Amino acid sequence: MLAKRVDELPSEGEWVFEPKWDGFRALVFRDGDEILIQSRDEKPLDRYFPELLDPLRSALSPRCVLDGEIVIVNDNELDFDALQMRLHPAASRVKLLSQQTPASFVFFDLLSEGDRDLRGEPFQIRRRELERLIASAPPPIHLTPATEGSPRCLRLVSPLRGSRP
């Protein structure tokens, strides 16, 4: 699902509000030791973010697919410019930038786990399963804040080192 701008918040229905992250939307596919980070347009991103591979192996189930956003935080702010710099063709530059400006992964949906395809399940079930899967994962893996109440609740400090969504 993609965020889209609306003129006003819905007044009826059951809604879950999440912050909009300023990063690269990506899917993570894990099958055993193999991790693939893929962009929305199906381009592989894992070579650009090598510092995320071991934390993903440690935090995720042996077989799963998650949806989220790769972000970089500098000075308690999301830094999209630094994120764009990470898409560099030279492996030596990618390695250097992964140390100088490490990325984080903020997850907001669990699409499958093991043999279970969760895409047909209601969002609340997928969210509960995602919370179970990564709630205790250490940084750089994060669970996006969400509220079923007022979206104003999301003005709380985000999970990313004091940054604000």
Give a concise summary:
The chain is an alpha+beta fold. The protein is built from 4 helices and 8 strands, in the order E-E-H-E-E-E-H-H-E-E-H-E. The protein is globular, with a radius of gyration of 16 Å.
Helix content: 10-25%
What is the total number of structural domains? Answer: 1
Count of separate DSSP helical elements: 4
Task: Give the CATH level 1 class.
Answer: Alpha Beta
- What is the ordering of alpha helices and beta strands? EEHEEEHHEEHE
Largest sheet: 6 strands, mixed
Query: CATH superfamily, called what?
Result: DNA ligase/mRNA capping enzyme
Instruction: State the CATH architecture.
Output: 2-Layer Sandwich
The averaged pLDDT comes out at: 88
What shape does the CA trace take?
Answer: globular
As for the CATH topology, it is D-amino Acid Aminotransferase, Chain A, domain 1
Number of strands: 8
Proportion in β-strands: 25-35%
SS-derived structural category: alpha+beta
Q: In angstroms, what is the radius of gyration?
A: 16 Å
Residue runs with pLDDT of under 50 for 5 or more positions: 161-165
What is the terminal-to-terminal distance? 18 Å
Give an account of the 3D structure.
The chain has 165 residues and is α+β, with helices and mostly antiparallel strands. It has a single domain (24-155), classed as D-amino Acid Aminotransferase, Chain A, domain 1, CATH 3.30.470. Helices cover 21% and strands 25% of the residues. Strands 1, 2, 3, 6, 7 and 8 form a six-stranded mixed β-sheet that branches. Strands 4-5 form a two-stranded antiparallel sheet.
